[in-house]
Amino acid sequence: MGLKEKSKILNKEGIEKALERIAHEIIEKLKSIEDVAIVGIKNRGAYLGERLADKVKSITSTSPPVGALDITLYRDDLTQISEQPIVHATEIDFDIDGKIIILVDDVLFTGRTIRCALDALIDFGRPAQIQLAVLVDRGHRELPIRADYVGKNVPTSLKEVVEARLEETDGRDEVVICEKVE
After folding, report:
1. CATH code, domain carrying 123
2. By residue range, what is the domain housing residue 145?
């Protein structure tokens, strides 16, 4: 089974505008970013987290600490994805105790990835609060999880796949909807 690109929902400028808007919403909602840290879920969420931190810094002149979280060993489908899953390093070199953590991911779908990320994050300490920022929310939740900050809501069918492609991993910035084909 393969994928056929159906439509582009965000281009490079759209991604940048979405991140800029999310940064403004975070600043407006939290009033102070003194106790804020940004943690992106590897891989694409980590890159988006770095970009979001840059946006926050350009608005406030304050740079929040940024980390990257690997959730591979926390996945509930670990045995289904690979016999030998590739585990990446988690990079959180700051104390998360008492911090407001903005957890960042590219696409919110069933909520299972976020559940894994919450479990992994709690192993690093006890944040005061965890908020979720996603580039795209495509619906179809299986768990009671919702994003606090959303770049774009996109209604999709279960026959569709939303792919976020980033310069750092894919050589270009775009979000596309693909259709599963036989």
Report:
1. 3.40.50.2020
2. 11-156
Q: pLDDT (tens digit, 9 = 90+) per residue, 39-93?
A: 999 999 999 999 999 999 999 999 999 999 999 888 665 444 455 555 568 899 9
> Any idea how long the chain is?
182
- Distance of alpha carbon 160 from alpha carbon 104, whole angstroms: 22
Domain membership of residue 92 (yes or no) is yes
**Number of domains composing the chain:** 1
What digits encode the pLDDT tens for the residues 141-160?
999 999 999 999 999 999 99
Give me the residues paired with residue 38 across strands: 66, 102
Is residue 44 situated within a structural domain? yes
- State both tokens at 118: 């919450």
Whether 100 is covered by a domain: the verdict is yes
CA–CA gap between residue 145 and residue 60 (Å, rounded): 29
Residues 105 and 131: their CA atoms lie apart, in Å, by 11
* CA distance to 3, 28, 97, 163, per residue, from 23 (Å): 32, 9, 22, 22
Give the residue from 39, 101, 100, 36 showing the smallest Cα distance to 62.
36
Establish if 50 belongs to a structural domain. Answer: yes
Peptide bond into 11 cis (omega under 30): no
- Residue 18, both tokens: 């979405």
